[in-house]
Amino acid sequence: MTKQTTNIISDDAAIRITNLNKWYGDFHVLKDVNLTVKQGERIVIAGPSGSGKSTLIRCINRLEVHQKGEIFVDGIELTSDVKNISKIRSEVGMCFQSFNLFPHLTILENCTLAPMSVRGLSQTEAEEIAMHFLEKVRISDQAMKHPGQLSGGQQQRVAIARALCMKPRAMLFDEPTSALDPETIKEVLDTMITLAEDGMTMVCVTHEMGFARQVADRVIFMDKGTIVEENTPDEFFDNPQHERTQLFLSQIFGH
Ligand SMILES: Nc1ncnc2c1ncn2[C@@H]1O[C@H](COP(=O)(O)OP(=O)(O)OP(=O)(O)O)[C@@H](O)[C@H]1O
Ligand SMILES: [Mg+2]
After folding, report:
1. pLDDT digits (tens, 9 = 90+) for 49-76
2. Which residue out of 54, 177, 226 has the highest number of ligand 1 atoms within 8 Å of its CB and is therefore the one to mutate?
3. What are the pLDDT digits (tens) for 179-228?
4. Which residue's alpha carbon is at the smallest distance from atom 2 of ligand 1?
5. Lower CB density within 10 Å: C or N end of the chain?
6. DSSP string, the chain
């Protein structure tokens, strides 16, 4: 058996990724990715389909395993040490395109499950926290319903509230609005804007460039498994440096 050593460092960064490499079989999906996310920083990751955005974000809470390089979350290195994985997963909330709510549980129960089972809160404590965050995403009146009785946008807001109930130190989003109707996209983006205004550290994969411009401190552009360009939103959109970025933006904005 190989000995597992885990590095814990003193770090002011929320997430620190150095020389990250990942392969799916022979396919080199992430190539020497370096990214540091400061506490309270809002990062938007953009890029064409298949560039590795989801893979990168999934590596941050070990839904995908990387083969080379280092990922530190709040100073704790992500290795195969199960203790650290569960610690990091409870500190980093994740919100996907599909909401992944438990259909047989009420909205309230969906939100209290992990705080009770992972954080060890009493039902009363967990419900109090759940109602606080359901109010925050403006959906507390639906607490006793089941997910199937809610619209897509409402379910996504519940998914965000559910993640917040764990009091995460950072939130990862992977195209949270791309499965939604145009009318409901705004309500989810508004929820994310509120979260950003509250100072949450956020890493968001999104095609919502209006959101990126309004909220992001930095936009990261990925292509073919590498970070091609990163900049402030204004520079990124108004003065893209890399040819690949220019092409991507011209396709997105249709000119
Ligand atoms: N489990 C897997 N096994 C093998 N290849 C995979 C796997 N998951 C993703 N890939 C491949 O890795 C590459 C990056 O995929 P990824 O899902 O990270 O891209 P993405 O940038 O999120 O794309 P999209 O914008 O379409 O969501 C793609 O070529 C994809 O086909
Ligand atoms: Mg993706």
Report:
1. 999 999 999 999 899 999 999 999 988 8
2. 54
3. 898 888 999 999 999 999 999 999 999 999 999 999 999 999 999 999 99
4. 24
5. N
6. -PPP---B---SEEEEEEEEEEEETTEEEEEEEEEEEETT-EEEEE--TTSSHHHHHHHHTTSS--SEEEEEETTEE-SS-HHHHHHHHHHEEEE-SS----TTS-HHHHHHHHHHHTS---HHHHHHHHHHHHHHTT-GGGTTS-GGGS-HHHHHHHHHHHHHTT--SEEEEESTTTTS-HHHHHHHHHHHHHHHHTT-EEEEE-S-HHHHHHH-SEEEEEETTEEEEEE-HHHHHHS--SHHHHHHHHHHHT-
The reply to whether 2 falls in a domain is: no
CATH number of 244's domain: 3.40.50.300
pLDDT digits over 87-131, tens only? 888 889 999 988 899 999 999 999 999 999 998 999 999 999 999
With left for phi above 0 and alpha for psi between -120 and 50, is residue 52 left, alpha or beta?
left
% of the chain surpassing 90 pLDDT: 80
Q: Is the CB of 233 under 6 A from ligand 1?
A: no
Please report whether residue 8 resides in a domain: no
Range of the domain at 222: 13-253
Altogether, the residues listed in the chain come to a count of 255
Query: What's the gap in Å between 205 CA and the centre of ligand 1?
Result: 13
Residue 86 domain flag: yes
Nearest to 160 by CA among 206, 125, 202: 202
- Residue 60 in any domain: the answer is yes
Quote the number of domains for the chain. 1
